[in-house]
């Protein structure tokens, strides 16, 4: 019973563990597109974090909140607000550059969705100049795929194909299926614009095959989340002397279902 599990979480005495649990509940609900529940748990995590002053975690939580609002594709102002809050919290930490890279890409995405292409390009270019871009392959993949899509929109087909080809190769190598799907969709549109309908059809078929794969992946994720809920219900009933061990086990379980905070 998930509701019972959440009630038991509130009895955990280890604030650091509780903060991470709330944050990961937020990520889980966001992945299930349950906006209100995700928002509730991100805010609960922030409430606990206020007592701990954990700048690193707070930056990640704000980044997740920005992504949550961005996914709704309606409250873009809040998305940008939380992305900037994430960067503000990271200023004093040694993770400033990674957060700067990710917030530049994410804010660029917000402006692209709003068809504010000049502002989108400004933030994408800032991400391209990041001195750590090559050290963060998933961020580089996102940036190249997004730039390829941007250049397709502006009819710069040479740059579009270059960035999409590289972005797709990176996504394929890293196993980032969402980015592969986005790249394939943009490549289908790009070759359709160019009048190469044979290539466009090839990418269209690959895109739909990838979409089917992702649907299966989402089903597997829901099953993993159910297992995660059962795990929490069992572990949180254990003696409080096992809290440290529970934290380590919880983090391993989180990684096993692909949730990273």
Can you walk through the features of this model?
By secondary structure, the protein is mainly alpha-helical. Helices cover 81% and strands 0% of the residues. It has twelve helices and no strands. The chain is globular, with a radius of gyration of 20 Å. The chain starts with a helix and ends in a 5-residue tail after the last helix. The C terminus is likely disordered.
Number of strand elements? 0
Low-confidence stretches: 239-243, 253-261
Count of helix runs: 12
Structural class of the helices, strands and pairings?
Answer: mainly alpha
Q: Helix and strand succession? A: HHHHHHHHHHHH
Describe the sheet with the most strands.
Answer: none
The helical percent reads over 70%
Q: Please, what is the average pLDDT?
A: 82
The amount of beta strand, in percent, is under 5%
End-to-end distance: 24 Å
Query: C-alpha Rg, in Å?
Result: 20 Å
> What is the chains' assembly state?
single chain
Shape: globular
Topology:
Elements: H1 2-9, H2 15-31, H3 35-52, H4 55-72, H5 76-90, H6 96-113, H7 117-128, H8 137-153, H9 157-174, H10 177-193, H11 197-235, H12 243-256
Helix pairs in contact: 1-11, 2-3, 2-4, 3-4, 4-5, 4-6, 5-6, 6-7, 6-8, 7-8, 8-9, 8-10, 9-10, 10-11, 11-12
In short:
The chain is mainly α and 261 residues long. The protein has helices at residues 2-9, 15-31, 35-52, 55-72, 76-90, 96-113, 117-128, 137-153, 157-174, 177-193, 197-235, 243-256. The radius of gyration is 20 Å and the shape is globular.
